[in-house]
Amino acid sequence: MEIGVVGLGKMGGQIAEKLYQEKFKVFGYDQNSNLYKDSSFTFETVNDLDTLASKFTGRKVIWVMVPSGNPTNQTIIDLSERLNPGDVIIDGGNSYYKDSIENSIICQKKEIEFLDCGTSGGVWGLENGFCLTIGGNKKIYNELLDLFDCLSTEESKGGLYVGDSGSGHFVKMIHNGIEYGMMQSIAEGFAILKNKKKYSLNLSEISSNWRSGSVIQSWLIDLISEELKNDKDLSGYSSKVSDSGEGRWTIKESIDLSVPIPSIYASISERFNSKLEDSFSGKILSAMRRAFGGHKN
User: Fold this and answer.
1) Which of the following is catalytic: 179, 188, 246, 270?
2) What is the number of helices (H) and of strands (E) in the chain?
3) CB-based contacts of 141: which residues, under 8 Å, 6+ apart?
4) What is the pLDDT of residue 276?
5) Residues near 248 by Cβ (< 8 Å), separated by ≥ 6?
6) What residues of the chain score a pLDDT lower than 70?
7) Is 172 an annotated catalytic residue?
8) Cα separations in angstroms, 206 against 90, 130, 209, 235, 236
9) How far apart are CA 72 and CA 95, in angstroms?
10) Does 227 qualify as catalytic in the annotation?
């Protein structure tokens, strides 16, 4: 199968590389051509969307992995002008699900197929596979099952088809809202441990102990344990923690549906607050975000 990948950043590059390693014919494009020079990409890269489209010998399948909002929406418009009826665009980024519904309509008018795919796995996806939730036309999902099989984990082959257009990104949005709450709880717990000066607690040893047999054992605990092993004070991290949008969207959805989410709401409030004060809990959050997603803060 031939596939183009637009957006070769931390996750997009790994998606393209994983597909190439599994014998897909891959064409990659990123507007930042410096990525080509500084990377170890083994798949073919091109310099513009026109060249990308011209590389295909048959049906064009394009995976989009660029920042949410206008960058993604404009990329889909640009691609739709270069594709033919029956070609496929897959938005694998963190797009707002309502944008995905609109983008599916744009594509439908040109008889182009559109799938929205919530993609989780961070910078570990190349090695471990990605967690995928896919929305759109189920027939097209089934036609591209080899693609989703390749990218997903061994435990969830093919990812999970969840429903109509927008549903893949809706489920990913809620996933990330939950992630915010879990990370915040871990960060606050470690902040209490660090501030109990009476015991001079070794946070690296505690986190390592919690990795096995504990009720809260998780990948997040695994990641922060490794970070604390390397730097017990996390001195290399800022306490300022960014949010990428999904937490805010989750809160908006909870208001529309009248569903109380106090833990998730508090976690996004703390991310706003982190920009105002220096805190160890903020450094814990920053360390986790960099460990799983490669985020700078």
Assistant:
1) 179
2) 14, 8
3) 115, 134, 148, 161
4) 67
5) 268
6) 38, 276-277, 295-297
7) yes
8) 42, 29, 5, 19, 20
9) 8
10) no
